[in-house]
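Run log, item B.
One chain of 305 residues. Sequence copied directly from the ordering sheet:
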Amino acid sequence: MAEVKLIADGLDFPEGPIAMPDGSIVLVEIRGGNLSRVTMDGKKEVIAHLGGGPNGAAIGPDGACYVCNDGGFEFHEMDGLVIPGGKPADYSGGRIERVDLKTGESKVLYTECDGNPLIGPNDIVFDKEGGFWFTDHGKGDGRIQYRGGLYYAKIDGSYIKEVAFPILSANGVGLSPDEKTVYVADTYSARLLAFDIVAPGEIGPDAGLGGAGRYVGAAPGHTYFDSLAVDAKGNICVATILNGGITIFSPDGKNKHVPIDDVVVTNICFGGKDLKTAYITASSKGQLLETEWETPGLPLNFLNK
């Protein structure tokens, strides 16, 4: 693996990185409640303070940033590391938000689906039609674990659909290069799941009992999965917790692990020349890292094309 470089330190549990055309990285700070920008010289500026727990983020067809807000976590500090927990006392409810990157103005688009509240929206990806898939991770609340699921929605606030439920702790979400498959990483089982897409926001009938998806693969050992990104060859790069790093899966389930020096590696995105640079959030240390990647990233709709 190429050298890993530190771009920025002191971030307040970063996640959801987006490599922007100008070379900056837009990301969220979950504990800080911010959507922020890290400039090319490593400086941070806050775009918008959203409160709660802004988590996944993606650029939509209108150029705005769409944010999955999980409502907040209870955070703990252990040996100088920041570790997320369950539902905090000031939990503000799950929601999908739109943020104008120029003004910082934010708007809540969705807080529920079919009368059921969103508990912990987590990761998001846009399809070529301009709609977005997102996961709800659920939330731990003492002895209760609210289960997660996979959703699809439109940017104008007019349409939201529960596509697959329950998924124990749905986290990362991404699309195959041909957009015929949507992948979901389940945190606590450390399993990568796949769903066949038959139309925008619709999956095929072979999703399995309870709509739980096709099994792609799992990571060995005591491991959790977080968010993910897909590369140009269709490999699924899953951020990995405990056994910190990125676990790369081919669509047939073969995998290998790229270690990163943090126990809570939460996300990866691709940018730079030819999308050959990976930007990785090492969240328990509050760091944004950069390294050259063996395979270019998959261009994202409305960002890299």
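Observations after the first pass:
- The mean pLDDT is 95.
- The chain has no helices and 31 strands.
Flagged for discussion on Thursday.
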